[in-house]
Amino acid sequence: MAPVEGFSKLTKEEKIEWISNKYTHNSKETKATIKRYWNTDKELQKLHDEFIENTITNFYVPLGIAPNFLINDKLYVIPMAIEESSVVAAASKAAKFWLHRGGFKTKVLGTEKIGQVHFMYKGDDQKLEYFFNAIKPKLIEETIPITKNMTKRGGGITNILLRNKSKDLKDYYQLHCTFETLDAMGANFINSCLEQLALTLKREALEYSGFNEEEKNIEIVMSILSNYVPNCLVRAEVSCPINELKEGNEISSIEFAEKMVRAVNIAKVEPFRAVTHNKGIMNGIDAVVLATGNDFRAVEAGIHAYASKDGQYTSLTHASIENDVFKFWLEIPLALGTVGGLTSLHPLAKMALDILDRPSAKELMQLVAVAGLAQNFAAVRSLVTTGIQQGHMKMHLMNILNQMQATESEKNTLVDHFRKHTVTHSAVVDAIQTLRKV
Ligand code: MEV
Known about the structure:
Blueprint: H1 12-23, H2 27-36, H3 42-49, E1 63-71, E2 74-81, H4 87-99, E3 105-108, E4 113-120, H5 125-141, H6 144-152, E5 156-164, E6 172-180, H7 187-207, H8 213-216, E7 219-226, E8 233-241, H9 253-269, H10 271-291, H11 296-307, E9 317-322, E10 325-333, H12 347-355, H13 361-384, H14 389-403, H15 408-417, H16 425-437
Antiparallel strand pairs: 1-2, 3-8, 4-6, 4-7, 5-6, 8-10, 9-10
Helix pairs in contact: 1-2, 4-13, 5-7, 9-10, 10-11, 10-13
The structure holds (R)-mevalonate.
Family: Belongs to the HMG-CoA reductase family.
Organism: Sediminicola arcticus
Keywords: NAD, Oxidoreductase
């Protein structure tokens, strides 16, 4: 197949014709599927079409809500956008469990964002240091047109450091900049500041009389925010006396508490387990981040880097038993916004923020951290008691029934049947076949 030229200039209909005819096995069916997912509200569809380039349709993910989250003594309902069947159920279960045991307590430990101008400099380190200190006021001054509104509200550039990285990579230096971006995630603000800083740096070096010709010629490689924000940190915690932990008849409270601590300790020392353990945390985090119109890829990248900050990938949650009290907590970096970007463009993101009582970015950090902690508590609790499949397969039953194109009446009968039987893929297939033979 030949490459296509000027694709983005084709109309939406032309793009659909092209993809259906050239890259699918049944073009009529493809076109019908694409159009089935268009919104009948033309204005809303146009809004979604314009989020990205080459939009042909919408890809739905369910938006669910998990009620009964008691966070710092206030009740919340948490909206979650996620396709995995058991996640909202698990969050709700954990919320209910802690509702009667004091709820979740949270704290923001820092809100510092980071961005860097990466550049190459061939010359004397000390001269560069001297030059940097001399031009630092100018660097700040020339960003004022970009920062003045943010500064008025209490944010802005908090510091600029010159970092010598030439031991790691020959001639490599950076301006390492820190920011306070208040309720904005701040990516555009930070990147605009960095690009201005780079321009000033380059120009000032060319004009600096203390440099020789080679030193004057600083090469700007790139200017970009960092999604690693170890000082934009939030903590969420639950705790209760061990004797209050018991629920159900599976195991005693102390046995349960000890198993939870052991499971977390395994994730601390064993990266293979830590990755899956943290994936469970991200089930909760990503779902709220996505529902509130935030950038879940940025959050994922930053959190996983934080999980390896001490040299080995490890658990993001911690658990302890001290003085007969069970404590379970999470500490993660989170760069989130509640203004700007998709948060104010996507009607469902706006609605999700409304459900959360229009939080500030700091409040949203706490709510998201709670969703991660709750998810991890629910997963590890199942793992050390009943096993994960019982709950997972119960939630997955509807997916299998839909795959088998079960009718409403078949679904009712089989959901009832599997209340008393173990759900496996083959057991569901057998049951539906038997039902259809009757
Ligand atoms: C599945 O999406 C998440 C779990 O694997 C997490 C865990 O193992 O802790 C259940």
